[in-house]
Amino acid sequence: MANRHGLIAGATGTGKTITLKTLVESFSDMGVPVFLADMKGDISGLAKIGCETDKTKINVEKYGLASKGFRYQAYPVEFWDLFGLKGLPVRVTLSEMDPTLLSKILNLSEAQQGVLNIVFRVADDESLLIIDLKI
Fold first, then answer.
1. CA dist 95 to 78, 83, 113, Å?
2. Domains of the chain, residue spans
3. 54-90: b or e for each residue (b if 16 or more CB lie within 10 Å)?
């Protein structure tokens, strides 16, 4: 049973990504759509058919997964991209973004980040909408 939201947390190497992949695969097998924000691209491999490794072979045998219908398969994936270069473009106004995220996307210096924070603060205080970067 799953709730609408979840959090998987832990130290590096504790299995967070594998746990998430397993959940996503299970939901997909049940026909449940999943939206997943994957900034590093660790989960993008779901789009390709898996292949056997020494570790997966051991686990398939250890847990008797072959008799339970285990098979390597691909899952339906749609990539979204803020810039629209490697996936579906994400349409969003700048006001809907956080200045910290926007600073990272634009690779701004510390001084530029400070100015951007001020712009967002003034826009919020004055109920102004920041739509784009046109000058």
1. 25, 17, 15
2. 16-89, 94-125
3. eeeeeebeeeeeeeeeeeeeebebeeeeeeeeeeeee
For residue 64, give the 3-state DSSP assignment: coil
Q: Are 44 and 77 in contact (CB under 8 A)?
A: yes
C-alpha 105 chain-centroid distance: 15
- Reduced to 3 states (helix: H, G, I; strand: E, B; else coil), residue 46 is helix
**CA distances from residue 70 to 12, 49, 59 in whole angstroms, order as listed:** 27, 13, 11
Tokens of 132: 């784009």
Question: Which amino acid type is present at position 24?
Answer: V
Extended strands (E) in the chain: 80-81, 88-89
pTM of the model as a whole: 0.58
Q: What is the pLDDT of residues 48-80, one digit of tens each?
A: 998 899 999 999 999 999 899 888 999 988 888
